[in-house]
TrEMBL record:
Family recorded in the similarity comment: Belongs to the RimP family.
Gene3D superfamilies: RimP-like superfamily, N-terminal
Region described as Disordered: spans on this chain: 1-21
Keywords: Cytoplasm, Ribosome biogenesis
Function of the protein: Required for maturation of 30S ribosomal subunits.
Pfam families reported in the protein's UniProt record: DUF150_C, RimP_N
Organism: Nesterenkonia halobia
Domain spans labelled Ribosome maturation factor RimP N-terminal: 25-100
Gene expressing this chain: rimP
Cell compartment(s), UniProt: Cytoplasm
Protein name: Ribosome maturation factor RimP
Length: 180
């Protein structure tokens, strides 16, 4: 599955206009207990879409719809009261979360996914699928998953290994479906 590119870990916006909006929106986002991941402006016909992506800084809890709705109302009020989108005739505010398949770009992204299965690409190494066990200052500890030799047999995991952040070229969560 193709994963859309995301702003680098040290960016919250790809274009100058969105970069101007980010610091104006951030206090409201922080007041709701969330972190600003990205601000994106895109044209969709006569409408401009202002997409604000937010997440929790820590833990594995997902942002619920009530929190997104409350934040959306608060951001809309800020945009209107400060005239931040005044030069845009028609815009839509879209408040969203990164989603499970977003590329993991910062240590906190990894911390939020401890216990989950990751697909990891590394410099000079074969891609692996591994269970994320821990996150340190310098990298992650994972147990690589080996496919079951036959259908219906349990999956095996190798002994945990440390992977330095600087060697990771891409990592994302693998969606797992429970069999109940």
């Amino acid at each position: 599955m193709a994963v859309p590119p995301r702003a680098r870990a040290d960016e919250q916006a790809r274009d100058p206009r969105a970069a101007e909006l980010a610091p104006r929106l951030e206090p409201t986002i922080t007041a709701h207990g969330l972190v600003l991941e990205e601000v994106e402006l895109t044209a969709s016909g006569p409408t401009t879409i202002l997409r604000v992506t937010v997440d929790y800084a820590e833990g594995t809890e997902t942002v619920d719809l009530d929190t997104v709705a409350g934040l959306s109302e608060a951001l809309s009020a800020v945009l209107d009261s400060e005239g931040l989108m005044a030069e845009v005739e028609n815009y839509e505010l879209e408040v969203t979360t990164p989603g499970v398949t977003r590329p993991l770009a910062e240590p906190r992204h990894y911390r939020r996914n401890i216990g989950r299965l990751l697909e990891i690409s590394r410099t000079g190494e074969a891609d692996i699928v591994a269970r994320l066990e821990d996150v340190t200052e310098d990298g992650i500890r994972v147990a690589e998953q080996k496919p079951a030799p036959k259908k219906g047999m349990p999956v095996k995991y190798l002994d945990p290994v440390e992977i330095a952040f600087e060697t990771i070229t891409r990592a994302r969560v693998q969606v797992e479906f429970s069999q109940t």
